[in-house]
Specification:
Layout (H helix, E strand, L loop, with lengths): L9 E5 L4 H11 L4 E6 L6 H12 L5 E5 L5 H13 L5 E6 L25 H24 L8 E7 L10 H21 L5 E7 L13 H11 L8 H10 L12 E4 L8
Parallel strand pairs: 1-2, 1-4, 2-3, 4-5, 5-6, 6-7
């Protein structure tokens, strides 16, 4: 029986402690792929991280997790050095699933009297774009320079319909998703001669901790349940399954795409 091409390989998951990152890490581990995970968690959520690590290790693979700021150049260097130190020769998979941004309107609402609510400023805007979009490029540049990416590597970014649609207080995140998709296309073109594929997975509305931070998330979830032709919300496991499938044989010619994983949600107006 032929083993899965992920067996014995390594995957690096940025944003590995919840949502799409955690589900994908576990799905990859079930294909015997070792997992390196980068996450940023405070003490209150660390027990959940330990549960994820335990579930990964229970599949018989290694789990190497780093609780650091993924957008920090210094921390990125440290993670890469640790990967090299443990003998990771080449990453089969890099997943960028970082969901940390500022959810503020660009302009103050028209209110009579009182202190105006906060609005998007330069620092928050640049932080959102840096973490949720530009860091994909920086991680890929440094991993490539370190020899940790090469022919056969698969790079995935996580986007959403928010890259082309508007919602209250979602402007900076929407801009980040649009930039992330643009980075994905540019990287795919430049890395194709090296045999490295780059694709964005556009998940449907999914009940994740990141979505719960968006103002009006209950309405977003209700509308998605109503309009999705498949009759339910997208699950993190749906995205994880698609990612694993795109790591299988015969997928090396799929690159530079934004691939919908949403049960048909995006085609319904």
């Amino acid at each position: 029986m032929t083993s899965h091409p992920l067996a014995g390989q390594w995957a690096l998951v940025l944003g590995a402690s919840s949502g799409f990152g955690a589900a994908s890490a576990l799905a990859l581990a079930r294909r015997s792929c070792h997992i390196a995970g980068v996450h940023l968690d405070r003490r209150a959520t660390l027990p959940k991280v330990q549960e994820i690590i335990g579930a990964i290790e229970a599949t018989g693979v290694r789990a190497l997790f780093f609780n650091v700021n993924a957008s920090s150049q210094e921390k990125r260097d440290e993670v890469i050095q640790q990967l090299q130190a443990v003998g990771v020769g080449r990453l089969q998979v890099l997943l960028h699933s970082l969901a940390f941004g500022s959810l503020l309107p660009y302009f103050p609402a028209a209110v009579a009297g009182g202190e105006p609510p906060p609005t998007m400023g330069r620092d928050r805007m640049e932080m959102t774009l840096d973490v949720m979009a530009h860091s994909l490029v920086y991680w890929t540049q440094d991993l490539l320079a370190a020899g940790l990416l090469g022919a056969g590597s698969r790079i995935f970014s996580m986007t959403s319909s928010g890259g082309s649609r508007v919602m209250p207080s979602y402007g900076a995140v929407s801009a980040a998703k649009a930039a992330l998709e643009s980075h994905t296309r540019q990287m795919a073109m430049e890395l194709a001669p090296r045999g490295i594929t780059v694709n964005a997975l556009r998940a449907g509305v999914t009940d994740t901790p990141a979505l719960r931070m968006i103002p009006g998330n209950e309405r977003i979830l209700a509308m998605a349940r109503e309009r999705n032709p498949s009759g339910r919300l997208t699950l993190p496991e749906d995205v994880a399954g698609a990612l694993v499938a795109l790591c299988g044989p015969g997928t090396d010619w799929i690159t530079g795409n934004v691939i919908g994983v949403d049960g048909g949600e995006d085609i319904v107006g």
